[in-house]
Amino acid sequence: MLLDLQARLRAGGIRVTTTEWLTLIEGLSKNLGTLDVTRFHRFARLCLVKDETLYDRFDQVFGDWWTGRESRFDDLADALGEGVPDDWLALADREAPSEERTRQVEALGGWDALMETLRKRLEEQIEAHHGGSKWIGTGGTSPFGHGGHHPEGVRIGGEREGSTRQGRAAKVWERRDYRDLDGTRELGTRTFRMALRKLRRLAREGRPDTFDLDDTVRETARNAGLLDIRMKSERRNAVKVLLLLDVGGSMDHHAAVSETLFSAARSEFRSLDVLYFHNFPYEALWRENARRRSTLLPTPELIRTLGREHRVVIVGDATMSPHEIAVPGGSVEHWNEEAGATWLGRLLTAYPHAVWLNPEPAEWWTRTPSVRLTHELMQGRMHPLTAAGIGDAIETLKRPARTRPQPSDA
Amino acid sequence: MSDAAHGRYITTDALHEAVDAALLLERPLLVKGEPGTGKTELAFDVARRLGMPLHRWHVKSTTRAQHGLYEYDAVSRLRDSQLGDARVADIGHYIVRGVLWEAFESAERAVVLIDEIDKADIEFPNDLLQEFDRMSFDVHETRETVTARHRPLIIVTSNDEKELPDAFLRRCFFHYIDFPDRETMERIVAVHHPDVKKELLSAALEVFFDLRELPGLKKKPSTSELLDWLKLLIADDLPPEALGAGDLRTVLPKMHGALLKNEQDVHLFERLIFLHRQRDRGEGRDGRGR
Predict the structure, then answer these.
(1) Residue at B41 is within a domain
(2) Are A146 and A158 in contact (CB under 8 A)?
């Protein structure tokens, strides 16, 4: 019974390790969290969840696991004295979500997406519905309602066999107090900064201005006790970042999230250059968005002057007509002699540590031809502009893009 | 449940159980929560209630794990050696004990507070794993081993500026201190300002919680800010009406500087108030609401 909880938690994306599991068992055997289910819930969370952004998910998995087991808590408490009985294991085998099932749930985008769809559907649906695959009702394969067949449906009304209603209402985990902490939603400067912080390359650079004790001692000893002071420069995050921001047009919808990323990056990186473009980078970028024409920076000049060690982060929705990328003269704003794809290729060759952040949800990318095209041009180095996406992007930044043989621009 | 008579710290059941579990199973307790929810205070309170000595280790960006064990003061020794001091012969004179050493040697079980562990380098927590597991460490200079007489209760606080390594998290209990709800907040205030007028308190809390609900604030006011604000209000002996409670949309509360610490937040708030006022005036003119 307990192992089933572990399996479910792992399937739900909470990586419960054996150490943590054993701690839980040890605690339970010392009568921690065995008094009632609220305490058990709290104690299990204390042992197993190490991140408040996962509290909400834990509550959901726990609630799901608990449904139908309300009466069995005493059995659990009794059984704990006797080690792990075999039938728990058997049960875990039978009830653990299969690979396939998990994949099916993920196909729907996981819980949050499911709940979101449910909300929409509730708004749309105006009458009772039974059978069928979409509306909320009984039977059928819609994910919502009860008595139907869907791998991870949302139960609305009805009761599972053998479960009791007692104490079902207002369980702590059902209040979902921690919903706002869920990492997949929260978008603040702070979360972005946390995500960006992983992008660092510590190096000792600049003037040696701190006292190097170890080296001084070593050198002094080598010097037969005569003091030989050694200095070293401080360790700093030496990573250099170039941020290219798409502004205007369809990006206006994403202004807030771009701004958040911008302010997070500005406070996080010592060396940050920011340039703007519209829709796609062409032969020139601009330094200040407000004064586009007067602060133009030709792209070849950028490539010539900006050090190759820069990490390039391009932010844009890449949503436009494919011509704007693929064809010379395709830009909506001006006549471009060479296609955007060529320019992006040059940037990528010059700065192989580059990545594209897209504020549009990743599920939509394949539907827009221009996004697909950009995704290909970026060699798949495109990530959604979310805290998790930035984390992945930083992993991507660590390895360079393949360089393609290209005519040199020198 | 805590009792106000025991101290000035109010806990919830969950936090209480977390501390109990950490004591019983001898695991470090990692505490997170919004700033101002009393993470640091927790350790002080636990030490006070259990009558255990508290060893506080305040972590800074330059702190290394070694600092908590001991430090070898090579510079002093070097200086002494050049001055011909006799002490120099014994290296033990130049070993400076750190917080964990003190706690390990303590005659009774102690509380160790590792405050703001996230401020240190990413590797910092990992460097302490061994010491936490074995509850002992070696002093290389003198070739001795320091072992804890009693496993101390270790309370670690984090402000989430860095992610902590998984290996460290695995060994900890984790508790997230929720922001107090209104009821708990009343109890907290009662402990700190027992003589506050009821009307003033309820007006102030209303303003406070409304303010926290305001979308787009860069920094939400926290418990400690509420307490400061109340102190100012009490000192000024303001009537509750002056706070503009229930009417947060149209009046900037008095002494808001104690609650909103950010210029942009104050601007945002002023702008909202301005908008609401305009709308109210517009509604008043044509005599019907929307």
Answers:
(1) yes
(2) yes
Residue B120 has φ and ψ, to the nearest 5°, of: -80, 180
The ipTM value here is 0.79
Please indicate, yes or no, whether residues B163 and B219 belong to a single structural domain of this protein: no
Per-residue pLDDT reduced to its tens digit, A167-213? 333 456 666 667 665 544 445 666 677 777 777 766 676 777 778 88
Residues B221 and B248 in one domain: yes
Q: Is A149 on the interface with B (CB under 8 A)?
A: no
Counting Cα atoms < 13 Å in the Cβ hemisphere of B190 gives: 12
A42, A197, A225: residue with CB nearest B81: A225
Domain contains B251: yes
Query: In this structure, is residue B86 part of a structural domain?
Result: yes
- Taking domain A236-398, whether its CATH number is 3.40.50 is answered by yes
Residue in chain A nearest B176 by alpha carbon: A52
A27 and B CB contact within 8 Å: yes
Residue that wins the pLDDT comparison between A75 and B171: B171
Spatial distance between the Cα atoms of B249 and B244, rounded to a whole number of angstroms: 9
- DSSP one-letter string for A139-201: SSS-SEEESS--TTPEE-S---TT---TT-TT-HHHH-TTGGG-TTT---HHHHHHHHHT---
The pTM for the full model equals 0.60
Residue-number span of the structural domain to which B155 is assigned = 4-177
